[in-house]
Amino acid sequence: MALQLMLMGLPGAGKGTQAEQIVDEYKIPHISTGDIFRAAIKNQTPMGVEAKKYIDKGELVPDDVVNGIVKERLGQDDVQNGYMLDGFPRNMVQARALKEFSAELGQPLNCVINIHVDPESLMERLTGRFICKNCGATYHKVFNPTKVEGTCDRCGGHEFFQRDDDKPETVENRLKVNIEMNTPLLDFYREEGILHEVNGNQPIEKVFADIKQILDAIK
């Protein structure tokens, strides 16, 4: 059976790392909305032309156009043996549309994997990064601290800064928005009977082993 898969997880849950391993292992195309948007615009597909009108004005691309671009992509030859969606659907309108058009194309979603990490751990992961002001070396309070506290290993500098993206209030807000967005989707796929939760609070290899066990059972 072909793997028609969607990958979910909050920022910092390790989705990108696992996505790479899944694609390498199962040789299925990684369909990320950012990539297919760029390709559709570059190739001037009907939906790409439509999307560009909104992007050029700095506006959000409406759901029907996003759905159209994903539908175009799922109609291409390389997805006959499966695919992995990343970053789509982002809301219930998109989820319902995907259910409809993926079934039409004979490519219905048959597995949703959610890499679950509790928000407290994600706060620690995402707010721990700090950078040397002098040479730009990057560290992490928990996972990659400086050898001597307050001194850069590379240049010996003592001044560090945090990017705005890594500041606690920014990260907290980002997680809150993502939780609100993901919760209805998780409920929807749980009801569909295709949701699998994987514990992301484990070493990378163990997370992938758990994912592999789920995917091998579907194949």
Describe the model.
- Its main location: cytoplasm.
- Monomer.
- It comes from Ligilactobacillus saerimneri 30a.
- The protein is an alpha/beta fold.
- It has a single domain (3-118, 169-218), classed as Rossmann fold.
- It contains eight helices and eight strands; from the N terminus they run βαβαααβαβαβββαβα.
- The chain has a five-stranded parallel beta sheet with strand order 2-3-1-4-8, with helices on both faces. It has a three-stranded antiparallel beta sheet with strand order 6-5-7.
- α4 (63-74) runs parallel beside α5.
- The protein is globular and about 60 Å long.
- The mean pLDDT is 95.
Write out key terms for the chains shown.
219 residues; alpha/beta; Rossmann fold; five-stranded parallel β-sheet; three-stranded antiparallel β-sheet; 8 helices; 8 strands; 49% helix; ATP binding; cytoplasm; ATP-binding; Adenylate kinase
